Amino acid sequence: xxxxxxxxKDIVSTLLPISTTRPDxxxxxxxxxxxxxxxxxxVTRAIKNMLPETEVEFQPVTVDDxxxxxxxxxxxLNGIEDLGDVCIDLTGGTELMSxxxxxxxxxxxxxxxxxxxxxxxxINAETGEVISPVKHISLEDCLMxxxxxxxxxxxxxxxxxxxxxxxxxxxxxxxxxxxxxKLCQHIANTVSTSGxxxxxxxxxxxxxxxxxxxxxVQGFMDKGFLExxxxxxxxxxxxxxxxxxxxxxxxxxxxxxxxxxxxGKGAEAGAVGKGAETSAADKYTDTIDGxxxxxxxxAREYITTYGTWLELYVYIKALEVYDEAAIGVVIDWYDxxxxxxxxxxxxxxxxxxxxxxxxxxxxxxxxSGDLYEVGFVASRLGGSRAKAILATTYPVKEMGTSPKxxxxxxxxxxxxxxxxxxxxxxxxxxxxxxxxxxTE
Length: 440
Fold this sequence. Notes:
By secondary structure, the chain is α/β, with parallel strands linked by helices. Helix content is 39%, strand content 21%. It has helices at residues 11-21, 39-50, 66-78, 95-107, 139-145, 163-175, 177-192, 210-222, 240-258, 297-303, 308-321, 368-382, 406-413, 428-437; strands at 2-6, 25-31, 55-61, 86-89, 111-116, 121-124, 130-133, 148-150, 199-202, 226-228, 234-235, 284-285, 290-294, 324-332, 343-352, 355-362, 387-392, 416-419. A 7-stranded mixed β-sheet has the order 3-2-1-4-5-6-7, sandwiched between helices. Strands 8-14-15-16-17-18 form a 6-stranded mixed β-sheet, sandwiched between helices. Strands 9-13-10 form a 3-stranded antiparallel β-sheet. Helix 2 (39-50) links the parallel strand 2 (25-31) and strand 3 (55-61).
């Protein structure tokens, strides 16, 4: 079958009909101003990834010239011997393209189809009858079509068995965000001046508050990201009841937590139990002052990168809800949009039933520019059906309900909001659903 399509920057409208009908050849009518850009090359690559044997062809037209569109379609169709083996897809393109396509389908008795994305059906444009259910596109095909790639050095992705540790540590960080800013900066600066060293020193003067910084350091040790070189595992003074508890349960728990996981490799020296002869009390220190060791290169990367934790947190939560998710995705804007910067990173991209969701993660107070940025990316790359969401550790809703306030501005711009603390109150699906409802 040969399918006539109207090229659209809305990737869903462009790819979904093709992934569903699986034609032998696709002929795109495309705005002649875009024929030399990267969009045709990217879309061709995505189609070939889905359907390796499908031939792809582009025919340039003047999209605001009805006669030019009509004449080009007739020219393409005149070169096809059997019009019974042709269909015209009216899903994408401009209104003039759709008008010409429908007119020619009537004149030459050619099947015209339309993909109802919301109802997930291919529709006969003449009769309104359902022809078939859609075959959804993958996140890989979507990213390929928009010229995106995941940088190999953007994030060292966690293994599934590490998710719980990352989620738990992230929540500790979110609860002590100001202390984390100072602690991360100190560790990153210390490590960066020491090459690839896996050890560094801390003292009690680091951080905004003593308790917050201690909670962070203790969390990193408990979750298996850090260990002290002196073997201490607890910061604080143990009471009698804690010592009794350590003697019974904590040995087994620590042994299980640190054994055989990516972050905990090499951390056995800091675990209570494991054949250590020192008493439980000797595992305590009343200060964070001392030398610490990253338990892996991955732990080093995470601890020295301030904003990684919200991105990882949202990514892991997205995997619970969406069909697919990716982190650290970079878009190549060059040539296609004539924007100065060639690369633009998107923190998290998710996919649900062929609808892309673009999520920007900010571990700070969001500003208006953040809303416009994620909104533009979603609109430009995913089209009108894409969703734009801003995730933040900042309590946006508490800023007020005035139209000048951030929350109201987000609703006006149809940018969804995720406040990280909501995940501890509601199931992940509810948090994401509320955010996407704001985009409707």
